[in-house]
Amino acid sequence: MSAPATGRILVVCSGNICRSPYAAAYLQRRLAAMGVTGIEVHSAGTLGILSSPPSPETLRLAQADGLDLSSHRSQGLSFEQVDEADIILVMEEAHRAILTERFPECRGRVHLLSEFHPSVRAAAAAPDIFDPIGMPLTDYRRCFALLRDAADGFQRARYPGRE
């Protein structure tokens, strides 16, 4: 049996009220269910929105998926979060650009989450995971399905053999 994994994963989107808190909570639960211990998963947003709860749609769908985001409050990126992260998963190329401009030392640790989506792995370039803010609930469902599939792919790629 392999030793427990350790480290920090930072999941980043724009406002930290939709995609990144959902993806972080899902990934944390997925890793725990697969027996991967010692990994902390955090989230933040590039826009620096502070202390906002998740969108009502995010709360509703997270709850339906067994994820409790009721205590989540948005936060902006900080040097400490970026510095402590072993891997940073972003939703859009724009997020990667912002991170590497603000924190050049994080180059090499920033990846589009969609890179790990099973349908994208063979593609030439990974697409952005769209922001459903302000869209109908069906778009949130579609976005969160993408997030789950990409997070599952990340878990399989990063921690193989722990299905």
* Average residue-wise pLDDT: 91
For the termini, the CA-CA separation is 13 Å
Q: What structural class do you assign from the helix and strand content? A: alpha/beta
CATH topology: Rossmann fold
Counting DSSP H or I runs of 4 or more residues, the number of helices is: 5
Name given to the CATH architecture: 3-Layer(aba) Sandwich
CATH superfamily, please? Response regulator
Share of helical residues = 25-40%
Low-confidence runs of at least 5 consecutive residues: none
Strand order of the largest sheet: 2-1-3-4
Write down the CATH class: Alpha Beta
Instruction: Please trace the helix and strand order, writing H or E for each element.
Output: EHEHHEHEH
Supply Rg. 15 Å
Strand content: 5-15%
Counted up, domains total 1
Characterise this structure.
It is a single chain. This protein has 163 residues and is an alpha/beta fold. The protein has a single domain, classed as Rossmann fold (3-Layer(aba) Sandwich), CATH 3.40.50. It has helices at 19-33, 56-64, 79-84, 93-102, 137-158; strands spanning 7-13, 39-45, 87-90, 110-112. It has a 4-stranded parallel β-sheet with strand order 2-1-3-4, with helices on both faces.
Structural descriptors:
163 residues, alpha/beta, Rossmann fold, four-stranded parallel β-sheet, globular
Task: Detail the topology: elements first, then pairings.
Elements (H helix, E strand, L loop, with lengths): L6 E7 L5 H15 L5 E7 L10 H9 L14 H6 L2 E4 L2 H10 L7 E3 L24 H22 L5
Parallel strand pairs: 1-2, 1-3, 3-4
